[in-house]
Amino acid sequence: MREITVVFYAREFSGDWKYPFDDETIAPFFAQLNQELNGCGVKFSFSHEPNVCLKINGYQDMLNSVRICAPKHGFSSLCLGQFLGASPAPDFLTDVKRGVRRVAFSPESIVPVGGEALCHNCGCGC
């Protein structure tokens, strides 16, 4: 079974922009995701990283505060905002789901480290 871990960095909102998100919704979200995809050979887990805090100025920064770790796919720490790009309809957990499904089922569609992707300067080192 392939394992994919999603790491949620601490977030500090700055300026006037805010996004209503309750971290307590993460555990039920992953329970449902695992139930939904349990026959596909992938297990999803999550963790919080309170020691890394990103300043959030907009929705793209929200996405940048999430890392997807899937070493067996060759991704030690993917920045969600980098490979998803702009969201068509900003919904945080829907975008997390889009990201983990993409890593699990079409990792070849993600630009590798050193590829032709532009860095968004979130501090992830890409």
For this entry, give a set of tags.
four-stranded mixed beta sheet; 29% helix; 29% strand
Chart the SSEs and their pairings.
Elements: E1 2-13, H1 26-36, E2 42-56, H2 59-64, E3 66-70, E4 75-79, H3 80-84, H4 92-105
Parallel strand pairs: 1-2
Antiparallel strand pairs: 1-3, 3-4
Instruction: Please tell me the overall pLDDT.
Output: 86
Percent of residues in beta strands: 25-35%
User: How many DSSP-defined strands?
Assistant: 4
Tell me the number of helical segments per DSSP (H or I, 4 or more residues long): 4
Helix proportion of residues, in percent?
Answer: 25-40%
Helix/strand order, N-terminal first = EHEHEEHH
Characterize the main sheet.
Answer: 4 strands, mixed
Uncertain segments are none
Radius of gyration: 14 Å
Kindly report how far apart the N and C termini lie: 28 Å
Count of discrete domains: 1
How do the strands line up in the largest sheet? 2-1-3-4
Which structural class fits the helix and strand makeup?
Answer: alpha+beta
Shape: globular
